[in-house]
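agent> fetching stored inputs for the zinc ion docking request
agent> found them:
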Amino acid sequence: MKPAICKKHGPQRFTLTSPLLAKAISEDGLDNIFITRIRIYSNERWSEYFVDNEYLTRFLPNHSGGEAVFKDRDVAKRRLNDRLLIMKVLSGMEYACPVCLSEIPGAVS
Ligand SMILES: [Zn+2]
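agent> prediction call returned; pasting tokens
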């Protein structure tokens, strides 16, 4: 989350989404984009992101769409879990207005 100004909604705490979805929001071009919800469990709390399904398929070729759940590392148990995948997925994402994002069908939490 980072504070930024949306042209439609003013100051918002921007959230991360896939580059295609961020571009579609800014250009109002949301046709034929299949949305996938990513849920990440990290530091004992859940975070949620919405991306286009093709974005996730880049990292998870066999992903069937809908929802993906990742678990971050467990320090106590010394397990890496999905940490490397989470880092890759998040590092390719871009910031977008959360209100614009919530107006997309399928991207409502
Ligand atoms: Zn907005």
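agent> quick read of the result: The two ends are 16 Å apart (CA to CA).
agent> awaiting further instructions
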